[in-house]
Design a protein that fits this description.
151 residues, mainly alpha, Arc Repressor Mutant, subunit A, two-stranded antiparallel sheet, 6 helices, 65% helix, WH-like_DNA-bd_sf
């Protein structure tokens, strides 16, 4: 396989594990966005809400690191979700210039509804793969994450 500049590219470039992971992620994200859109929430907002739910009091910078996105991306989504009354900022108990993020009741309701959609997607995957293969896939993906972090 070659590119326009004729430098060789490995013939198996599109058969790599990393490419398969990316294709799967694109498919999952597209399905999440499609299924969450009627609820007025994007997959990225779901990820932010569930992260704050699981780690209440995160700062914007901590949340950005947790989600592996830029602080600007988090700030934009936080402002949007705060404007909808789904998130609130509270003063940090020790650092007066730092604010913690917390879900509001509306945020918890929205997250609960969105999570039901995500559960349906998960169930569809498990239904097609079977319970055993789905568990194996989850374990393998966790191993991949660990290997890449160690590299």
């Amino acid at each position: 396989m070659t590119q326009d500049d004729e430098r060789p590219i490995a013939a198996d470039a599109l058969d790599r594990v990393t490419w398969a992971l990316r294709r799967a992620e694109w498919a999952v994200q597209a399905r999440k966005d499609q299924r969450l859109r009627p609820q007025g929430i994007a997959a990225a907002q779901y990820a932010l809400l569930i992260s704050v739910h699981n780690h209440p009091g995160l700062t914007g910078a901590e949340l950005a690191r947790h989600l592996n996105v830029t602080p600007q991306a988090v700030a934009s989504q936080v402002a949007r979700l705060e404007g909808r009354g789904q998130l609130e900022r509270r003063p940090h108990p020790r650092h007066r210039h730092v604010q913690e993020l917390h879900l509001t009741d509306a945020g918890r309701d929205s997250l609960r509804d969105a999570d039901a959609v995500i559960v349906e997607i998960e169930e569809r995957i498990a239904e097609k793969l079977g319970t055993k293969k789905a568990a194996q896939l989850r374990a393998l993906l966790n191993e991949v994450a660990d290997v890449v972090r160690e590299a």
